Amino acid sequence: MIYTIKNEYLSLSFNSLGGSMTSIKRLDTNEELQYQKDPRSWQGQDVVIFPFVARLKGGVYTVDGKEYSMKNHGLCRYNEFTLIEDKGNEATIRFESSEDTLKQYPYNFVFDVTYSLDGKILTLSYKVKNTNDKVMPFGIGGHPALKVNAKDTLEETKIDGSKIVFDQPIELIEMVLDSSGSWVIGENSLGVSQTITLSKNLFKTFPTLILKADNIKNCILEKCNGERVNYDFDCAYLAFWSHPQFGDYVCVEPWMSLPDYEDAPSEMMEKKSLIHLEAGKDFTFSYKITF
Predict the structure, then answer these.
(1) How far apart are the first and last CA of the chain?
(2) Rounded to an integer, what distance in angstroms lies between the CA atom of residue 219 and that of residue 146?
(3) Are the C-beta atoms of 139 and 50 separated by less than 8 Å?
(4) pTM, 2 dp
(5) CA 65 to chain centre
(6) CA dist 210 to 232, 255, 281, Å?
(7) Which residues, at least 6 apart from 142, have a Cβ–Cβ distance to it below 8 Å?
(8) Strand partners, 157
(9) Distance CA 57, CA 69 (A)
(10) Strand pairing of 10-15 and 21-26?
(11) Of 191, 201, 190, 193, whose CA–CA distance to 161 is shortest?
C-alpha cells in the first residue's frame, strides 16, 4: 500500500512493502524530486537498509556456528511494514521480527521508520529496538535516489554538470571495493577536494563510491540548473551510487556500517563496523534532506 504525507511545501509517498519512499513532490510546481523507475536502470527508488548493508560474503553468515543467509541490504526491502501513526505531515511505520525473519536473522527486533515534513525539510528516522535478552549486531543505512538534470541518448543518460559539494575542502577517504564491487578490501585517499563531479563515468570507475564520514556532516547535491538539495547526517560512511549507464538520479546514502570485507569472518558478532545493541535498548539513526 502507498501512503502519503504532506505539508504546505512538499508531499511524500512511501510503500508499506519495504517502507521505502516512492515520490517526493514540490507542491508549488508539482515537480517530482525522487527518481521514477526507468526500465533500463535500477528498479528501486529507495531502500531502508537493515540489518546488513549491501552484501554478505557469499550471501551467508553464522551466529554461534549456525549458518544463515540474507539477501542484499537485509530484510526490510522484502517485507511489509504496518502503519502505526499518521499525523498528516508525519507518519511512522513498523516492521517486527517473525518466524520468517528469524530463519534469516536470528534476533528479535522492532524496527520503526518515521517520515516527517517540516517546511522544506524531510527527516528520515530509523529506530531499532533489541527485544532479545542478548546483544544484537546489525548494520543500518539509507538509500534514497533523487533526480538530477539529465539528457538521454541511445547509449546512456547523461547527468554531467551536477555535483556533490562539501562545506569545505576535505580529504576523501575511499573504502575500496574489490573488482566485483561487492566486498571491502581496504582504504585509499582520493586527495583533498570540496566537490565530487557527477557523471555516469564516475560510476563506471566506482560502482559504489564509499567515503569515510568521520569529517563529513553534510553535503549538497548541486544540480546543473542551480537547484540545491542539502543532506545533513551523522553517520560513519557516506556512499554515492547510480546505474553506470541509464537513469536520471544519484543516490546519496548515509550508512552506519559497511558491506562485508573480502576476508570477513563468517560469525556475525566478529564482523567489522556493525553496531552491537544491548538487550532491551533502542538505537535511532536519522538524517535530513532539505529541498
Answers:
(1) 26
(2) 14
(3) yes
(4) 0.97
(5) 30
(6) 17, 9, 29
(7) 46, 47, 48, 49, 124, 126, 253, 254, 255, 287
(8) 152
(9) 10
(10) antiparallel
(11) 201
Q: Rounded CA gap, 279 and 129, in Å? A: 9
Average pLDDT over residues 253-267: 97
φ/ψ (deg, to 5) at 146: -110, 145
Q: If we measure between CA atoms, which residue out of 57, 54, 97 comes closest to residue 74?
A: 54
| Residue 193 confidence class, pLDDT cut points 50, 70, 90 | very high
d(C-alpha 113, C-alpha 126), whole Å: 5
Output the nine-digit C-alpha cell for 291: 529541498
Of 139, 161, 133, 166, the C-alpha closest to 148 is 161
Q: How far apart are CA 59 and CA 72, in angstroms?
A: 8
The per-residue pLDDT for range 139-178, each reduced to its tens digit, is 999 999 999 999 999 999 999 999 999 999 999 999 999 9
Among candidates 18, 45, 54, which has minimal Cα distance to 256?
54
What pLDDT sits at residue 91?
A: 98
d(CA 145, CA 159) in angstroms, rounded, equals: 14
Q: Are 117 and 90 in contact (CB under 8 A)?
A: yes
| Helix H or strand E encompassing 283 | strand 282-290
Across the chain, which distance is largest between two alpha carbons, in Å?
56
Alpha helices per DSSP H over 127-223: 200-205
Place of cell 560474503: 57
Dist. CA 47–CA 94, nearest whole Å: 15
pLDDT of residue 93: 98
